[in-house]
């Protein structure tokens, strides 16, 4: 999955980190040192940087002994959706029932119940 270039140049460091963790970043490198056609040294590097949610979504393996019962892991497994107004990822159930805690966007269901935006 390639990250598309955007024209928004006002992004902060927090926005960049949020995007990398949301989409994930994988670096593969194969380095060989050869003399006269004889390989003397070979190094293979694979590094991945992603949130738990993104890593699990794409099937990245976690080290043995990983505790899947932690609060962070359970939170990562909750289904999330993007807010249509601010594009932040919010748990789907919360977004559809009470709205977005980031920008105050309200779904039609919440508007019908008479909830008001906090923003």
The coarse silhouette is: elongated
Largest sheet: 2 strands, antiparallel
- Provide mean pLDDT, rounded: 80
Instruction: List the secondary-structure elements in sequence, H or E.
Output: HEEHHEEHH
Strand ordering within the main sheet: 1-2
- Share of helix, binned: 25-40%
Q: What's the domain count? A: 2
Summed up, the helix count is 5
Low-confidence segments, ≥5 residues, pLDDT <50?
none
Question: Overview of this structure, please?
Answer:
29% of the residues lie in helices and 24% in strands. It is an alpha+beta fold. The strands form two sheets. It has a two-stranded antiparallel ribbon. The chain has helices at residues 13-23, 52-57, 71-76, 92-97, 108-113; strands at 25-35, 38-49, 80-82, 89-91.
List the helices and strands and how they pair.
Layout: H1 13-23, E1 25-35, E2 38-49, H2 52-57, H3 71-76, E3 80-82, E4 89-91, H4 92-97, H5 108-113
Antiparallel strand pairs: 1-2, 3-4
């Amino acid at each position: 999955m390639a990250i598309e270039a955007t024209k928004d140049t006002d992004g902060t460091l927090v926005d960049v980190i949020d995007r990398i963790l949301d989409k994930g970043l994988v670096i593969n490198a194969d380095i060989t040192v050869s003399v006269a056609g004889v390989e003397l040294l070979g190094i293979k590097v694979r590094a991945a940087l992603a949130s738990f949610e993104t890593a699990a979504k794409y099937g990245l393996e976690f080290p043995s002994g990983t505790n899947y019962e932690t609060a962070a892991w359970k939170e990562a497994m909750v289904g999330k959706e993007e807010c249509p107004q601010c594009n932040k990822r919010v748990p789907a159930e919360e977004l559809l029932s009470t709205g977005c805690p980031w920008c105050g966007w309200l779904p039609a269901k919440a508007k019908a119940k008479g909830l008001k935006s906090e923003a």
